[in-house]
Each structure stands twice: as C-alpha cells, then as structure tokens.
Amino acid sequence: PGVSPESIGWTADHDLGFMTGVLPDTQAALDGRQRYFDLAAQAGKSPDPADVPFFRYVYVGESEESVRRDTEEAISWVWRCLEWMGARSKGEAGTLDEWLKDGPAPALGYEQFCEKRGFFGTPDRVRRQLRELRDDHGVTYFGGNFAFGGLSQELVLKSMRLFADEVAAKL
Hints:
Helix 1 packs across helix 2 (26-42) and helix 6 packs across helix 7 (153-167). This protein has a 3-stranded parallel beta sheet with strand order 2-1-3, with helices on both faces. Helix content is 56%, strand content 9%. The protein starts with a helix and ends with a helix. It is mainly alpha-helical. It is flat, with a radius of gyration of 18 Å.
C-alpha cells in the first residue's frame, strides 16, 4: 500500500531520497524502507539511513487509559477523513459531513490503529517501540506527528514533553 515497488526502484536508481509517511502499517513502511535500501545497493548507491525519515503518529501519556481517553476520538476522526478521501477519489463518497454521519464504520479500529500505525502509549511502551525500530531496523531518523484530529494544544504539548523527557532522553 502507498508506494509501488517500481516507484521505490526508480527513486533508488536516481539517487533520490525516501521517507515513510504515517499512513502505511508500520511493517509495510519498514518493508518499503528496506526495499529502498536493497534497490539502491543494486544500483550502486548507498544512502545514509540517517537521511531516511520514518514517520508515525505519536502520543505519549501517563497511562494506557489516559492515552486512549485522550486520543481515541481524535485519531478515529482522522482515519475516517482519510478513508473518505480514498472513497471520494474513486467517486464513491459525497461530502465529508455525509461520510462522517452516514458512511461505513472505519476499516481500522482503535486497537488495530495503535498496534499497526501509531506509537501510542506510556513512555515505556513508546520507548520500546522506538528502540525496536532503531535496533532491529536501523531507523535513526524518526519523526512524530503529535498533533492530529483536533487534539488540544495542551494535550499535544503534554505528550511532546513526555516524549522528550521520558522517551527520547532515555534512548
């Protein structure tokens, strides 16, 4: 999903940069990233992993319960909007308001989203996820999308502070 093997190959062959966005599942994004490095090597290139950003939605809270309370509605709205854009591009949806009111249930539930696409949780959990990215997949350039779906500035800043103090500082 998201990026074809051909486009990754073309990018690697032309010595262009590569990044993963927040939309694909984490494993699919990691697979695409690895495909980029493999194809670049086949083309005689050696991109620096530090120049290949890996992005995820991120929210760090004091407890799993507070994380869910703070983010479930916001990330569900984001996901519904993204699904609407996909359906709309195929001529399968009317307005966003109609979609949000009468459209199908989201294809991805909150738990699935957190497991496959977002780094949501306590500092310990998010730190473990980032350590795995770094140690198992060589990701050294991580970007977090902390503001999404109408989260208040207060919640976004609180999450960012916890991330800075309790996640990044301890990696």
